[in-house]
Design brief:
- By secondary structure, this protein is of the alpha/beta class.
- It folds into two domains: about 30-110 and about 205-325, D-Maltodextrin-Binding Protein, domain 2, CATH 3.40.190.10; about 110-200, D-Maltodextrin-Binding Protein, domain 2 (3-Layer(aba) Sandwich), CATH 3.40.190.
- About 45% of the residues lie in helices and about 15% in strands.
- It has helices at about 1-25, 45-55, 70-75, 90-95, 135-150, 160-170, 180-190, 215-220, 220-240, 245-250, 260-265, 265-275, 285-300, 320-325; strands at about 30-35, 60-65, 85, 100-105, 110-115, 130, 155-160, 175-180, 195-200, 205-215.
- The strands form three sheets. A five-stranded mixed beta sheet has the order 2-1-3-10-4, sandwiched between helices. A three-stranded antiparallel beta sheet has the order 8-5-9, sandwiched between helices.
- Strand 6, helix 5 and strand 7 (about 155-160) form a beta-alpha-beta unit.
- The protein is globular.
């Protein structure tokens, strides 16, 4: 009986110890879980190269491609995933979870593209428009277009991925959409390009894609986050010096390396165009991006209340980026 009691006490002690360790490191994960709003594509080649570099420095990760941005954001908020993509300012303001942005992946460089029926933004008054996701970057662009051009769009249809929206445009499923730089260039340089117009847009410096996570998780996984951000900075710096570095260093057996040959052959052109157009900030955006985001997403209606009362620190956490930039 004494032996049984002794064994029980040992089991109880071990169980209590495990529970205590779990409660103090609930956010610590052996493998970083990344929530993506779309499958691997040419636009994500630089990101996957950064992951490869981070992996060589000890980062262990896995990624899941969700059907759309909203699902990916909710997966991070619920704790199902650790890191997400997007600019969930509205969700961050409303959510009790301390979600923070740590890196600007790309600027909101998008283009309204329409059939020849339209020549300027004002012509789209009352017309339906196809956008990426509800509450996402293109949705915010549409909101600001309405404000600045004094128009009101008709029905908003949401289809993830600029490539898919181009397909809808060329097949006659929509007459107006907002797409990214690479797909705009690809469309307008194609034989079908003379059937469409790229409407003149005002300049935008706010974030389109940013990396965000729960602040508690970030602090509990500081080492891994630092490795990840440093890898991103290194890729962005190399890319600005030589855009062809992305294709040269892409793992042929990785998610990007397995894309169709024609996509891989277009990587040099895509990143050359992107760097020249200023799509990426070589230092990850930081406070400059954060301030631009505050203004943009307040104008677009995703952030509410008096803008003077909005604190950047409630939406961004700069420590990992500050350390990476100094190295």
């Amino acid at each position: 009986m004494k032996k049984i009691i002794k064994n029980f006490n040992l089991i109880f002690f071990f169980t209590a110890l495990v529970a205590s360790l779990f409660s103090t490191s609930v956010y610590a994960q052996k493998k970083i879980r990344i929530a993506m709003a779309e499958p691997p594509s040419d636009e994500l080649a630089a990101f996957f190269l950064a992951l490869d570099r981070a992996k060589k420095n000890g980062l262990n990760y896995e990624y899941t491609a969700f059907a759309d941005e909203e699902l990916a954001i909710q997966a991070v908020i619920s704790g199902q995933m650790d890191i997400g993509f997007g600019t969930p300012y509205s969700v961050m303001q409303k959510s009790k979870a301390p979600i923070r942005i740590v890196y600007q992946m790309s600027k909101l460089l998008f283009f309204p593209v329409t059939t020849k029926k339209y020549n300027k933004l004002e012509d789209l008054n009352g017309q339906s428009i196809m956008l990426h996701s509800r509450g996402g970057g293109t949705d915010s662009i549409a909101n600001v277009i309405e404000e600045r051009s004094k128009i009101k769009f008709g029905n908003r249809v949401y289809v993830s991925g600029s490539k898919n929206r181009v397909a809808a445009l060329t097949s006659g499923q929509t007459e107006a959409t907002i797409i990214d730089l690479s797909n705009k260039n690809r469309l307008m340089r194609s034989e079908a390009g003379n059937k469409f117009n790229v409407l003149k847009m005002f300049p935008v410096n706010a974030s389109d894609e940013a990396i965000f996570a729960n602040l508690n998780w970030i602090k509990a996984n500081e080492k891994d986050v630092d490795i990840f951000i440093q890898a991103l900075i290194s890729v962005y710096k190399d890319m600005h010096k030589d855009p062809t570095i992305i294709a040269k260093q892409t793992d042929p057996n990785g998610p990007i390396g397995k894309l169709p040959k024609q996509v891989l052959e277009s990587l040099d052109g895509f990143y050359k165009d992107a760097v020249e157009a200023g799509l990426y900030d070589v230092n990850g955006g930081g406070r400059t991006a954060a301030k631009a985001d505050m203004d943009w997403y307040h104008r677009s209606g995703q952030l509410t209340g008096d803008i003077k009362n909005l604190k950047i620190e409630d939406f961004w956490y700069f420590a990992p980026l500050d350390k990476a930039v100094k190295k």
